[in-house]
Amino acid sequence: YVIKNKSEDEERIRSLMELLDKNNIQYGTATGNSKGYHYQNKKEEAFTISPGDLVISASQPKAAMVKVLFEPQSKLEDSATYDITAWALPYVYGLNTFASKQMININYGKQGADFINNNPEDEYGYVIRWQGTSSAKTVAQLLAKGIKMRFSQEPFEVSGQQFDRGSVIITKKGNTGFGNALWNEIAKVCNENKVQMNAVNTGMVQKGYDFGSDLVHALIAPKVAMLTGEGVSSTAAGDVWSFFDNELKYKITLINASDFNRINLNDIDVLILPDGYYRFLNDKESSAALQQWIEKGGRVIAMESAVSQLSKQEWSIIKSKTDDADKGKEKNNEDYSALLPYESRERDPLSNSTPGAIFKVDVDNTHPLMYGYPSYYYTLKMDNSVYEFIKDGGWNVGVLKKENLMAGYVGYKLSPRLKDGLLFGVQDMGNGNITYLSDNVLFRNFWKNGELMFCNAVFMVGQ
Q1: How far is CA 375 from the centre of its chain?
Q2: What phi, psi does 286 have (nearest 5°)?
Q3: What contacts 331, CB < 8 A, 6 or more positions away?
Q4: Which of 6, 305, 328, 383 sees the fewest Cβ atoms within 10 Å?
């Protein structure tokens, strides 16, 4: 298995290497030409192995585990499975990978250079590239310390360096309260997370927009709360809570959903609704209170079934495609397909389900929700939810198109319906917004490539 080494994937590759090390899976480097299955295109292709590529042999003491973790298409003895049906690590981490049956001579030993600690000097400022969870952890921890930062909405070039959308800018002038301790304080956090600080000597860029432009936005440390308790999936809430506590190390307030009417929403900037059923959304006054708070500048992150429930609100602009498809079916009194034998009670529903398959999502990486991503994202789909494209008042940030199934099982009745629809979108409402994440981007602390999207929703969208 050959994982192509690209600079923008550095954080993702490092995260994968940590997983391989924990499981004593050997890897190394190689050079030359080969041929293999390209995970992204699902085709056999010729490719070149560069010195920095990560190469994992299927012939090693952990061969069985390697095969399970990397095989492009998992082998199912039976579609009636209790768990997800696809988990190939190149999709989990969003990495450009080939699976080759040809013999490759691997040079084992240390892969890549050690991270060199930042040793900052007294510069005009520093820029942190927004490329993965490590970048987001760094920025979250700096925000918690009160360090003021800005991020660029457009790519720019300054001091001979190129930076993409979402890059975070820290200037000495903007943080005078830290005095001479500023850069050492920032370097400490960056070094802990193995994130590079890139020195710049001016805020006047060679390409793009200057640091004082209105396309360079202030990063405000948001006050984040999450609804839990009654009606909320404990595992879904646990995914979010664990991510904040163990990964971001950023404060989150947990509020019981049954106490919604007693919440002072003015004390919250971002409200997270994990997978669940929220009774307060069925109450007109409570629903109106949430709407008014959003319009005044509040930001909601709705996940999984919370998206479905919000889509039924009068003020939501998204609409379920699958509900419409079901409603549009004409009932036929002579349709004998409903006459099923009792022994099919478990198997027949599978034709309308996906217990966990991987789909390729086309994304708009010019939108803050997808900063740090290429033009695609691999999602783990565990339900039949897909929504109509947003026509006005929002943004179609992640959409399913045709022939998008990459791996895993999807029922034959459901498969034709999982296309040409919205999975990830943002609705603008007055001064606030709603981010719709219809799939679980933090699944079991395992779906690593979704973590950056979630961080974008918390820190970037609407700032």
Answers
A1: 13
A2: -65, -40
A3: none
A4: 328
